[in-house]
Write a structure and sequence with these properties.
Layout: H1 4-14, E1 23-25, H2 27-33, E2 37-40, H3 51-60, E3 68-71, H4 75-87, E4 91-95, H5 101-109, E5 113-116, H6 121-135, E6 138-139, H7 146-162, E7 168-172, H8 177-189, E8 194-200, H9 205-212, H10 239-246, E9 249-253, H11 255-267, H12 278-284, E10 294-297, H13 305-312
Length: 316
Amino acid sequence: MVTLDDIRAARARIGDRVRQTPMVASAALSEKAGGPVWLKCEHHQTTGAFKLRGATNAVARLGTVAGVTTASTGNHGRALAHAARALGVPAIICVSRLVPQNKLDAITALGAEARVIGASQDEAFLEALRLERDEGFALIPPFDHPDVIAGQGTLGLEILEQLPDAAAIAVPLSGGGLLAGVGAAAKALRPDIRIIGISMERGAAMAASLAAGRPIEVEELPTLADSLGGGVGMANRLTFPMVRDLMDELILLTEDEIAAGLRHLAAEGQVVEGAAAVGAGAVLAGKLRGPHPLVLILSGANIDPARHAALLEAVI
């Protein structure tokens, strides 16, 4: 498992390559939740999402490679493209047909190839495996990789430095890299802190896998929280057991609840994608009330502007 020492080493490695993002109080969500609620604004990260932390740490650990590849729902691909460009190596990002066009455009704008393969992240991952096997590319998975998890864990260190008395951290949950990293860092420093995973009802693979007691395949469905789509990997070695052991509570949201969270955050001046709005959505739906102080991780900002505008007009 990834340790606090691994996470501290990752921060030393990537500290000058990623931003320390702000923490701001939300008066409206605090009133709704019955206690202090803080927003960790990781959507202000370079490339617009937390994924830069893990990708940068993983790429920094590589030796000489022909290139790098991954399968992604968009944000990890963009982060890996950014890290690869800094290293001066080619990047091929394998994505499914469900990945929004704005995320494909962001990947190619960084000089990487966005290779569209199949109808799910699992299908796209098969092409990434082929590139690793046949063409010598280094495969940097989006979550189930120790260096990726350690990089994401630097966010947990940052949260507790900014808010040492945080009682709970609500983490958007997909493949589990963010929750595993943040949970490992936070619980190593504060064993009593609660780690709350939040996902969507539509195609939540980690939730279904935890219920089954092992990684299982789940149909990937369109959702406002598109960054939380994709499977956990049938050969998952790290994030499944880490999420199982570190997470204290799991909350699932409807599409309407996610949309409500997104609209609320926009009213507070925070433009985020659906995956980043799940914490606010859970508070507004009465599914998350504490303990306090409660930190909501706003994980990414990479939403299509037209889609965001339609959601603000309550047109889903």
